[in-house]
Design goal:
It is a single chain. With 73 residues, the chain is an all-alpha fold. The chain has one domain. Helix content is 62%, strand content 0%. It starts with a helix and ends with a helix.
């Protein structure tokens, strides 16, 4: 995972979680990441599955990076 990708994920996590992913989240197991998502999701998302939350974060990070890259062209 590139540093840019990691930073995009940390940024995007703040849109779904009350606490952003820490810098070393990419070294965690999937189960630990999903549990973190469930434990720290913001109120309207309480009860959501951690894997689903992670996928939403991942999609937002990817979409924003694609937008940024398109603007640079």
């Amino acid at each position: 995972m590139s540093n840019k990708d990691k930073n995009d994920m940390i940024w995007a996590s703040g849109h779904f979680l009350g606490e952003n992913f820490p810098d070393d989240y990419h070294k965690w197991t999937e189960d630990k990441i999903y549990q973190f998502c469930e434990d720290h999701c913001w109120e309207p998302l309480e009860g959501s599955d951690g894997e689903w939350l992670f996928e939403q974060i991942e999609h937002l990070a990817w979409s924003v990076r694609e937008y940024i890259n398109a603007q640079k062209k």
